Each structure stands twice: as structure tokens, then as C-alpha cells.
Amino acid sequence: MNFKRIEAIKRLNETPQWDIAIIGGGATGLGIAVDAASRGYKAILLEKYDFAKGTSSKSTKLVHGGVRYLANGDVKLVFSALKERGLIFQNAPHVSFVQSFVIPSYSFFNKMKFLIGLKLYDWMAGKLRIGKSRLLNKAEVKEKLPKVKIKGLQGGIQYFDGQFDDARLAINLAQTAAEHGAALLNYADVTAINKSADGNVSGLTFTDQESNISHTISARVVINATGIFVDEILKMDSAAHKNLVRPSQGAHIVIDRKFLGNRDALMIPETSDGRVLFGVPWHDKVLLGTTDTPLDAHQIEPRPLEEEIDFILSTANDYLDGAPTRADIKSIFAGLRPLAAPTHGDGNSTKEISRDHKLIKSDSGLITITGGKWTTYRKMGEETVDLAIQTGQLNPAECKTTHLQLHGYSTDKQAGHWQVYGADLHHIQALMTERPAYAAKIHDNYDFRVAEVVWACQHEMIVKVEDFLARRIRLTILDAQASLEAAPIVAKVMAEQLGKDEHWISQELADYKELVKRYLI
């Protein structure tokens, strides 16, 4: 596996012209890189921060067709997403799982309404259906959701959808792209879009933030896949550009599993303000969310608003006995959805903003992809590369990703967090066998080992302590305080592996301490 920064820099210096240059290392950009590289194109991807640092690591962890989109009549989007959900299960079974959801119902009419909708949802999935929705009586709901309030409970509905580890899938996409010949760099800040004399995009300039060296590359096509930051790149292309994206914040709180009960997830389809709220078991914790708050500004590390935290806790209290309080929260996090901005109507209503993706070609030939959702990353990649072939007059090649197994592919089932490594797990186990010191835990309360830090340094392109704790093992969002306690060990091991000094360790720990403040209540 050539997924190393040094290999990417080497490729950079050896390639006079790229077929496709991709800006943005989230779900969309990584999906494009896999598609382009697997078709045989010379592709390079540049990410300003770490892969999936933004929205792509801060989802509700659902691979789903979108039950709520069906309720809004967006049938086309649901059909497409259900197909893509099935393909993720086929191509990356080590990081995707079937999850049972229960909707408790306190009204006979609502129970039947939701059952009809979910039967339609099942039917739309066709041969890629992953479960069969059914009515539950009151006792069955209580058995599946032991903490649910039973006063007025009429029963419920069980349905099945997908769950995944978003940041782990992202790193597997990056590794897959590299295995097919793409060059990928994190901490690579694009500073200019370059054009030929006739005004067409001819490449870009970026700064490698690790070396502080600036590079200018030539590319037949440049793709802007920067999520909530697409407008910043478009303004490099045209100073007169008007914003395309209106961000919407989705906030989550993380609590102990005891507050929900068994393996089943809770789905509340109609909260007091009309939103959908999930309680999802994930990595032995429970995620409660999400909100849908329109914002005028965006940032790489958003923090849940106090009113969002209160709303989630209040809604949980409406449905659960012994519901969590602020003191029970292990971590909080928020992601910004890059929704395509409305052109008319109520600009503050996120229901008026498209959930589907938009593919745009500027007069200069710059391609921009915005909107969309994690589940449809592969389809967005396919459509974007198809347009890139036309735009750059590349030799046509068929899409290969429909049945492309992603790095780590394994159907073996492992206990705990080890599952997400898939086929790489035996390499990590070998490290612990060869060096018993690598089997030491980085925190007494969690089963994360020093060997995982070593592996991530060697094969998962971590640059900062945050990269490992937040996105390679997810401890930052599972238990923010525990992650802070584990940080010194992680920094020490990274320094040994990456050839860093004591000053680097001190700076990294200071940076991480500052970051974690955004995840602590």
C-alpha cells in the first residue's frame, strides 16, 4: 500500500500533468478520486486539513435512503440512495452494518402511517433490501427499547437501515484511491486556481503545510469538492461569484449505552419542531441527534449551540425514562451540511434547501460538486468523473466502482472497534505480537492500543494527534475527556514514528487541548 505522504510527494514531482486534480478530501472528493484512479486516470487529491475532518466525520453514522426525504416526496433521491446503501454493504462490509430501528408510536393513526411509508421504503430498495419492516406490539417495543416511556404507548414499527463509521470509510477510500495510482495529500492548502491565456483552468497552486513548500501543478481538469467551502474555491475562479451553499448545522450528543438499552436504535420521526431525531448505538455508546439549524457562517470545527443541546435532551426526555442530563454527556459534536442555497422563498427554512447534489461547470471549465449525502458518495463520484471526461477531453473509460471492493474489505466479524480495520486487522495484531509494548492500551477504559497509533503513522497518513484520536479511532467524539487523557501517549508514539521532537509534542498537546474544548459540554 503506497498511502504515504512521501509517496504522494514523489508522485507529485514525477508527474508533469495530471488528468484530474481534486480539491477536497471529504466523502465526495475521495469518492471522485477512487472513481478517477480506478478508471486509469492520473488523479491527485489535495485536502487542506485531514481527510474527512469536516462534515464527513460528523454525520449521524447512517447509511440510509432517507426516510424523511420520502415523506417530503423526494422519491428520486431515495431510490438512488437505497441503491447506493446496498453497494456500500457489498463493497465495504467491514465498516458498514445493518441496524434495527424502532419507532415507538403513541397514536394508532401515526403507527399505520409510518408502517405504510416504511413498507414503501422496503419495496424501493428492491433486491438490495436489508430487512423487512413490521408492526410491534407494546411489549415488543419495550423489549427492544427498555428505556422507552410506556404511558400511552400503542406499539411501534421496526425497520432496518444502514450504519457505518464515516471517518473510517473515508480513510479506506483514500487508501483505495492510492492503490489504484492516485496521489493524495492531507494538509495541502490550495491557494490559487491557475488559467491559460484563453481563460480556461489549467491547474492550481497549493502549499504543503508540513514542509511549507508551495507547488504548482498542471491538470486537464480541476474539481472543486470542498463541501461547505466550495464558495471559497469558486471565488478563486471568479471574484464575482455569488454563494451557492447555505450551511445547515446538525448537532449530536454522545451518551452511555445504558440510556437506550439494547442493540436497537430509536427513531423519532416527528419531534416538537418537526425534525427527525435518532438515538443510535455506535461503538458501545449512543449518539443522539441530529438538529437542523440554518447558519449564515461556517467553520471547520463548529460547536453545537446551547439550544441544540437543550432540544436534544428535552426530546429524549419526552421518550425515555431516566433520560440523560447534561452531566451524562460524554462528548458533543456538530457537522455542517453543504446544502445548495435556495434562490427564492424562506431562506431560513432548511426544508426549502435541496438535499440532492448539484454538479456545475464554470465558464473556465472548473467543475464544482456540492450538496449530496454520504450514502451517495459513489454515485456523485461517477457523475463528476463523467463530466470531467467531457470537460478535459480525456480518453473515455467506463466507471469501475459499482462492484469495487474497498481497502480493508472483509466479511469476517470482529469484536468491538477492531471490526472497522477489516483485512488490516491481522497486520495490527502482528505488530502487537512482534513488539509486546505495542499491545499496551492508550487509555485504561478503552481497548485502543499503541499498535494502532503505529499502524496509523505508517499506513493511514496521520500528521497530527487530532487525526488519530478524532478520525482514526473516534475517541474524541466517543469520550472527549478520555481522549484528552490519552493524548500524551499518542503524541509520544507519533513523535517516535514520525521523527518529531519534544517541541512538536508540546505544540501538538496544546493544539489538541484547545480542540477538545469544542467537544466538552
From TrEMBL:
Sections of the chain in a coiled coil: none
SUPFAM superfamilies: FAD/NAD(P)-binding domain (SSF51905)
Domain Alpha-glycerophosphate oxidase C-terminal: from-to ranges: 408-502
Keyword terms: FAD, Flavoprotein, Glycerol metabolism, Oxidoreductase
UniProt domain FAD dependent oxidoreductase: residue ranges: 19-376
Essential cofactor(s): FAD
Domain of life the protein comes from: Bacteria
InterPro entries cross-referenced by the UniProt entry: DAO_C (IPR031656), DAO_C_sf (IPR038299), FAD-dep_OxRdtase (IPR006076), FAD/NAD-bd_sf (IPR036188), G3P_DH_FAD-dep (IPR000447)
A Pfam entry, by short name: DAO_C
Family classification: Belongs to the FAD-dependent glycerol-3-phosphate dehydrogenase family.
Protein name: Glycerol-3-phosphate dehydrogenase/oxidase
Origin species: Sphingobacterium oryzagri
